[in-house]
């Protein structure tokens, strides 16, 4: 995959390329399989998707999956995409395809989204947290809505004293309204889609990158004297909760 990407997109560094495969695949799989939205390849000239004007909420728009989902949806003509993120990321997310952004830390965020957008038919939860995302999202959906949730769901975050708790089941983790279809995203099943199996990583992704339709995630390079030290530094930073809008990248080779 990296060889194909770098051979077709020579302007990208390896640090950028490694942010791509798993989460860009996840974005395609989530949009197509879990939300059920058509994303044909090749995209027909002048293509307008059947649900182009319906609101799509990306909760966690500054996450890696969120950034790729915004760009893929924009490319296919979905034009009513909104996102939640820290205010410092709002401008960038709008450049990727969001028409509105909301601060997920604002205590009135659910009220504000509901007031401006009404009940939302399509949602991607890029975080998957019982209290942090599923609880507010469940207040924004009604019968017929589809919610795609990244797994595993964080039931309880880790602390210095306690290990985290996770769940692979989404329906019992929030008070969903009757008729809401909540789905846990399982990216490894993307190979069941024959188009994705044959062309997603070998043709579709390199083409979108080479043509500038999709931009790699921003990244932060983690330093350390050894592989173990670099990995531990990255894990410590991730656990600190200070990572925002970027992927953590570190060298595997010592030289």
TrEMBL record:
SUPFAM superfamilies: NAD(P)-binding Rossmann-fold domains
Keyword Oxidoreductase: yes
Molecular function terms from GO: oxidoreductase activity, acting on NAD(P)H
Gene3D superfamilies linked: Medium-chain alcohol dehydrogenases, catalytic domain, NAD(P)-binding Rossmann-like Domain
Electron transport among keywords: no
Keywords: Oxidoreductase
Official protein name in the record: Alcohol dehydrogenase-like C-terminal domain-containing protein
Organism expressing this protein natively: Friedmanniomyces endolithicus
